[in-house]
Input
Amino acid sequence: MLRIDKEACIGCGVCEEVCTFGAIAVVDGVAEVNEQCTLCGSCVDSCEADALSIETAAKSVQADLHRWSGIMVYAEYRHGRVAPVSFELLGIGRKLADQQKVPLSAVLLGFGMGDAAAELVSYGADTVFQVDDPALEHFTDEIYGNILEDIIQEQKPEVVLAGATAIGRSFIPLVATALATGLTADCTRLEIRAEDGVLLQTRPAFGGNIMATIECSATRPQMATVRPRVMKAAAPDQARKGEIINYRPAAERLQSRVRVLGSVLEEQDQVNITEGDIIVAGGRGLDNEKGFGLIKELAASLDGAVGASRAAVDSAWIAYPHQVGQTGKTVNPKLYIACGISGAIQHVVGMQSSETIVAINKDPNAPIFDVATYGIVGDLFEVVPKLTERIRERKGQ
Amino acid sequence: MDQIQPMNIIVCIKQVPDAKDVRLDPKTNTMAREGVESIMNPFDRHALEEGVRLKELYGGTVTALSMGPPQAEAVLRDAVSCGADEAVLVSDRAFAGADTWATTYTLAKAIQVNGPFDLIICGKQAIDGDTAQVGPGLGKRLDIPYVSYIRKITGFADGVLAMHRLMDDGYDEVEMPLPGLITVVKEINEPRIPSLKGKMKAKKLSIKTLSAEDIGADPASIGLPGSTTQVVKVFAPEFKGERAMLEGSVEEQVEQLLNKIEPYL
Output
């Protein structure tokens, strides 16, 4: 509860101003708190009279905190291949492990996986715990969750990372709940605080309008799912040595109440936009479907993929698989050309890590220019066809 | 022969600020809340619709359940006007500051106190936190099977629900025995608008309210003290664009740009 020392309160109203939830108000010269309070602590920090405090029962810290050591990554395997996010997790995992001077391990679950474990070693894993079993042919939350929980209980890593995918975001919460520890979803930045080894987990919230840094200080492991295409994978090194351990789960841990009858793969609309080096994306400024055609032509001249803002997808100028942003895909190509996209935060969070960003927009105040490496203020219908023409000339097409 | 089995359904609903309007002032680091409306989490609206459709097909009841401040009553009345039969508000100052761990504890306790159920439906995530962790965590707490990201329910027979579960590369065909929990994506249905009859009912309905004591919650497991994660910093997203503006005629702008992006051609 938020405690207000009515003697100390000078009724200055600073707390009222800083409260983001409208939970505190000065009434008759004294601050009063209402039910909207989320105990975020902003007012406590702002109070110059030290009149505010948050009462918490002394937090019980897990007794064996110091015995948890090492970084562990859940490596997703599906339909014959390791998901690319697994290599990205090994990239950030390696950095964290080196900083903490602890080993990096990976957990690989699936059926008929061939030498996928060796691939994980080449990307940085020191140890791979692998379960290759028919019961793991299809993904089920229970079986995958049981096994990961058991391996974590046995190995006691300080940090566990998984991809924020349709699989990771579904069964990792089960594992964290079973282990009675904290989990942070969809992280875009991870650092370990050197003094106490606490993992600082940064993630977007409110559709990307706000970033929050979260820690899990009293329990282990510290668990996070990580957004795909944000962390960088290391270059694979075939000469790297690592240990591959075939883990044997207990038979009762291979039971699932949910039954998967089969998987249906859906054809991706044209290329997968998350995998190309160049993306040309269009937004509301294209006016209509015909206007959007200019984007496709420019993309074709560059051998690039076509991306779109939510506005363009909602207008049905292009299909959803092309949508970039918070509710679409996260991309980080070498070159991203945004045409007629205003740069709403929901779009920007999906493309801001691109190497070079070009923005073309008629509004000089469009927020897209804030993330742009190069900007052109101008009429799309002149600039884009001209650019396409000149690129074709230069490439001798 | 298939037996028609009525289903008692609980739909979990969260009241959220309309996320698209939320901004953080980078100077003061506070949220601009002027004009930010409180709404029913959009994914939960699809969860509710699916619950009501199942009830219409198989019989049973739909209970809308929300954990939140007293004002969250508004979304529960909204839910009743769209077809829910009952509404339960789990509300206590002691719940403030709960992370997903403390939230699933609280919801699980409230659901156990509320009585027997066959199916719990949640939206895939809330648009304020975007975590997608409460559905799966709640399933684990209640020790019932769950499936996330349901985009279609294809059948229900002999106590088993057949569904399509969205994956990153397509979908899985799954079967889950009840009692169980699902989280749903937007594609699953088109939510109805409130009916006049529903609105009348919503107006009159008394909403059952459960406090921390009512659900027998352990004070150390709820709210801020019960949370395993802490938010230590909140900030506006930073952008590091160089913002080099290319000036001149269209031809000049295009030529300059061509030179800049030459390495990628």
